[in-house]
Amino acid sequence: MVGAFATGKTSLVSRFVSSIFSEKYHTTVGVKIDKKTINIQDKTINLILWDLYGEDEFQKVRMSYLRGSSGYLLVVDGTRRNTLEKAFELQTRVEETIGNVPFIMILNKWDLTDEWEIDPVEIDAVQLKGWTVIKTSAKNGLGVAEVFQTLAQKIMDE
């Protein structure tokens, strides 16, 4: 999982792996690794989830963490437009590092649509590029399981 700081990466993983959400913000230091087993098309898939610390102007994602990845989730906070621009930069850097592997752009914090800063036209433009975009809320669980299931399916289809 990659994205700007405070986009909800850790909360999304916690919701998916443990079905929990915390209002408390905890900065990820380095990388946090979780595992979850899911079933797709009668196959058991072990997902190893690497939650990388947030990217900002003071930190640089250690791209070496991504080597060997079969896919990734690009997390955007819909209440902060600048996280969309950061996601575009990160997607380019990740692709330069590990090549063209399946990924999904997550528009997180969908439960806060009254505070949304990203225009639907911008979302449409991303989808026109052929990117899969899924709206999520780590707080209420909307779309969270779908994101991981969809990414696992994309990886299997490669």
What does this structure look like?
This protein has 158 residues and is of the alpha/beta class. The chain has one domain: 3-Layer(aba) Sandwich (Rossmann fold). It has helices at residues 9-18, 82-98, 120-128, 144-157, and strands spanning 2-3, 31-40, 43-52, 72-77, 103-108, 132-135. The strands form two sheets. Strands 1-4-5-6 form a four-stranded parallel beta sheet, with helices on both faces. It has a two-stranded antiparallel sheet with strand order 2-3. The protein starts with a strand and ends with a helix. The model has no long low-confidence stretch (mean pLDDT 86).
- Under CATH, the topology can be stated as Rossmann fold
Q: Which percent band covers the strand fraction?
A: 15-25%
SSE sequence, one letter per element: EHEEEHEHEH
Question: CA-to-CA gap between the ends?
Answer: 19 Å
The CATH architecture would be: 3-Layer(aba) Sandwich
Helix content: 25-40%
Number of helical stretches of at least 4 residues: 4
Number of domains: 1
CATH superfamily: P-loop containing nucleotide triphosphate hydrolases
Mean of all residue-level pLDDT scores: 86
Structural class: alpha/beta
Shape: globular
Q: What is the name of the CATH class?
A: Alpha Beta
- CA gyration radius, whole angstroms: 15 Å
Uncertain runs are none
Q: Within the largest sheet, what's the order of strands?
A: 1-4-5-6
Biggest sheet descriptor: 4 strands, parallel
How many runs of DSSP E, i.e. beta strands?
6
Keywords: GTP-binding, Nucleotide-binding
Protein name: Small GTP-binding protein
GO molecular function, one term: GTP binding
Pfam families: Ras (PF00071)
